[in-house]
Amino acid sequence: RVEHRLVLFYLANDVIQYSKRKRLEFVESWATALQKATTMVRDEKVKNKILRIFSIWEQREIYNEEFLTDLCGLLNIAPPKKSHPTIPDSEDYQNASLITSIRECVELSEMTDKSFKKMPKAPNCDIESIKQHLKDKSHSDDVEKELERYAAYIEAFNKNLQAEIKSRKMVLTNLDTAVKFYANQRGEVKVVVSAYKNFGSRIKLVKKKLDEITPTLASPIPSPDVNAPSPEPDADLQLPDEQSPIPM
CA 58 to CA 14: how far, in whole Å? Predict the structure, then answer.
């Protein structure tokens, strides 16, 4: 429950602030976990309380401004509504279905255009004229055939049009799924990028500390001169007496 997650954030806040005072490792080592946890407390019930914790960290210089800005960004990303379909996992989603549906829609659209172009000119629909033709038995069959032929073309066009509409709805559904999937992927990428930034900041901090203590370190033993003679294979080495202490 989101209330329990808030309690865990309070616990993490206590540990992190204590670690900051005692110079323990949890301040930096928990940074990546905080990024993932922040995405789980976007509920309006607790969002302001989480922002309050971030504000305290900023005031007490627990974390740097860049990292806290990333956390606030992750907190304010709007979560998907429950009524929306579930976003497919990276292993389940395949854009091949979207490509296939688009190609099918294009083919059906072309068929609809062809069937429309094949339609003959509209028959004479003047009621009085039709009555005159029907009175003449020699022309009544022609009028009936013309109407039946035109009805057949309209039926074929309507059939192709309905198939195209169905295909277009499928394209829209696949596009909507793709948008949700890639938006979710973008959010995960932002988390990874932020984690690498934080990791880079820690490396810089370690380097800074190393640079500070390097001048106080003892100088290394100098290497022998390149022109110094090497000992011969059969030469006796002068080893220290086993009873005598070896100088450090």
Answer: 15
What pTM was estimated for this model as a whole? 0.39
Spatial contact of 72 and 149, defined as CB atoms under 8 Å apart: no
The string of DSSP letters for 17-84 reads HHHHHHT-THHHHTHHHHHHHHTT---TTTHHHHHHHHHHHHHTTSS-HHHHHHHHHHHHSPPPPTTS
Closest C-alpha among 104, 106, 54, 59 to residue 76? 54
State pLDDT tens for residues 15-68. 999 999 988 888 888 888 898 899 899 888 898 899 999 989 988 889 988 888
The 10s digit of each residue's pLDDT in 181-235 is: 888 888 878 878 888 888 888 888 888 888 888 888 777 666 666 676 666 665 5
* CB distance 27 to 16 below 8 Å: yes
Using CB atoms within 10 A of its CB, is residue 83 exposed (0-12), middle (13-18) or buried (19+)? Answer: exposed
The domain 1-76: what is its CATH number? Answer: 1.25.40.90
Tokens representing residue 41 in the block: 């407390």
